[in-house]
């Protein structure tokens, strides 16, 4: 238990892949609990289905737009709450590969920008589908989402699957206790 607080709050040192994945599991559990709480206070991703009237396209469209905005605010709140722990384990994992982690900071900044744009209702337009106006992302938002998605895959591979530096590096000793070979 003593190691959990620094795992999720410290940005110094190195962690192994196993510790990283254990930390990710903790964050996923936290995200599930937080998403349940947020949905209970009305910031979930699903509209109130009982209130939808298929015979009233304008009301249906407004309910979908409201659900999109609500989900964006819920995602932003989750990102802010889980951002520091996620950033801490990612930076320490990059340190294990003898990297400063600046790419992780760029990824988090791009994600935060996208979530802010969505939460404030930008980046979406309405498109009529079978007589119902539905929120759809703009081309710019789709491109930003694609860039962030590709970046996320890169980080998944680097953080979760590539071996760290053998022996000590500038960020600390090998978390596996190995020594560098000459």
Automatic annotation (TrEMBL):
This is DUF805 domain-containing protein. Keywords: Membrane, Transmembrane, Transmembrane helix. The chain crosses the membrane at residues 20-46, 71-92, 104-122, 142-162. It comes from the Bacteria. One of its GO terms (cellular component) is plasma membrane. Pfam families: DUF805. It comes from Paradevosia shaoguanensis.
């Amino acid at each position: 238990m003593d190691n959990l607080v620094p795992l999720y709050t410290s940005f110094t040192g190195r962690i192994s892949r196993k510790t990283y994945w254990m930390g990710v599991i903790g964050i996923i559990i936290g995200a599930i609990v937080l998403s349940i709480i947020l949905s209970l206070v009305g910031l979930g991703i699903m509209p109130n289905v009982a209130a939808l009237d298929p015979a009233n396209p304008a009301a249906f469209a407004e309910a979908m737009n409201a659900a999109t905005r609500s989900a964006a605010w819920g995602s932003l709140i989750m990102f802010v709450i889980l951002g520091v722990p996620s950033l801490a384990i990612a930076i320490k994992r990059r340190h294990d590969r003898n990297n400063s982690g600046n790419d992780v900071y760029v990824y988090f900044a791009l994600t935060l920008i996208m979530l802010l744009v969505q939460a404030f209702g930008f980046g979406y337009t309405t498109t009529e589908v079978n007589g119902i106006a539905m929120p759809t992302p703009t081309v710019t938002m789709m491109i930003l989402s694609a860039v962030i998605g590709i970046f996320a895959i890169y980080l998944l591979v680097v953080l979760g699957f590539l071996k760290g530096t053998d022996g000590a590096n500038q960020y600390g000793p090998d978390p596996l206790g190995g020594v560098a070979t000459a």
